[in-house]
Write a structure and sequence with these properties.
12% strand, 48% helix, single chain, 7 strands, two-stranded antiparallel sheet, elongated
């Protein structure tokens, strides 16, 4: 069982985040006022999970069917067709609601792996971002923000999910208001939430062993994956002990 997949967080309390990032995400969630946001950072840092949590705040029925996978839809033709459809659909919705004086229902879109789209076609979203800022937030998940066109960046809030990096196999913290030890304790906290969900007793020796490997602590996914492996190995040995 892949713990990092099976027990993906459904709220920000269950995520390992640095203080400022948690504050922004929690504010957006509690207020319900969610702007266009670019979530950027390395893989496994919680970008897509955070976008999904916020999207469900806008629409409780939001599902993966509403996520635009830019890694799977790389061709300019597909991108252009999708964005043209999006612009037409949102424009038609606006006109309909204006004519009937009804309150517009909230919508939200996630563009996952958005950095795979070339900048020329990224900017086709400019009008949507301008006209629908209050009613249809667009959430972009990217690994490298430099690959996001400047017109898109200027229209969205940018949140960095990178906490640490590895240099010579050592954990090097970014300027996020946390020490390496504080970050590892945050990982330990989240790991224990999942361990209890699985139904295992807390084993500090396993936690310490995983946390001692800085490479496993650079992002939450790596840590949870390593932690789950260690626990599963322990359970396997105990089950087959003496056989």
């Amino acid at each position: 069982m892949r713990w990092d997949i099976e027990y993906s967080p459904t709220n920000f309390d269950d995520m390992a985040l640095y203080p400022d990032l948690r504050e922004y995400l929690t504010h957006y969630y509690k207020s319900g006022n969610i702007p266009h946001v670019i979530f950027h950072g390395d893989t496994g840092t919680g970008k897509s999970t955070s976008a999904f949590i916020l999207a469900q705040r806008v629409r409780p029925d939001f599902s993966q069917l509403n996520v635009f996978d830019c890694a799977g839809e790389k061709t300019a033709k597909n991108v252009a067709g999708y964005i043209t459809h999006l612009k037409g659909a949102t424009g038609a919705l606006t006109r309909f609601m204006d004519n009937t004086h009804q309150k517009r229902p909230p919508y939200v879109f996630i563009f996952d792996e958005f950095h795979n789209i070339d900048m020329k076609h990224q900017t086709m979203l400019n009008l949507v971002l301008d006209n629908e800022a209050a009613n249809i937030p667009c959430l972009f998940c990217v690994n490298d923000i430099k690959k996001v066109a400047s017109p898109i960046q200027s229209r969205a809030r940018k949140l960095c999910f990178d906490v640490a990096a590895i240099s010579n196999d050592k954990l090097v913290m970014r300027d996020v208001g946390m020490t390496a030890n504080e970050w590892k304790e945050e990982l330990r906290r989240v790991g224990r939430i999942i361990t209890k969900k699985v139904g295992y007793d807390i084993d500090e020796k396993i936690e310490d062993r995983v946390l001692s490997n800085d490479v496993s602590c650079v992002d939450t996914r790596s840590f949870i994956f390593s932690l789950g492996e260690r626990y599963e190995m322990k359970m396997f040995r105990e089950k087959h002990k003496g056989k």
